[in-house]
Amino acid sequence: xxxxxxxxxxxxxxxxxxxxxxxxxxxxxxxxxxxxxxxxxxxxxxxxxxxxxxxxxxxxxxxxxxxxxxxxxxxxxxxxxxxxxxxxxxxxxxxxxxxxxxxxxxxxxxxxxxxxxx
Length: 118
Hints:
Helix content: 55-70%
Number of strands: 2
Mean pLDDT: 88
Order of helices and strands: HHHEEH
Shape: rod-shaped
Number of helices: 4
Structural class: mainly alpha
Largest sheet: 2 strands, antiparallel
């Protein structure tokens, strides 16, 4: 799956007690080291990876939306500019803010690169 990153593979290899580099890894090695016996452990790592990827995808969507967003300003009574379509803008903002708040309660939140502190 595309959601598996190097840290996930390291976790899988550790659970299977496989000590080779990624370039030397084969399916046979996984199989020989009890892949079927550790099916539950591997499924858990896959679940975590998919949860983290879902957060990353949502963050990318939010970033793309707001980086590309342009305000449509209209002149009102030749004095001030008003935002046309502000209701759509605030609805999108409300949706994204709600998603970000929910994301923070996710068990996968800490592992996502965007939130890691240096």
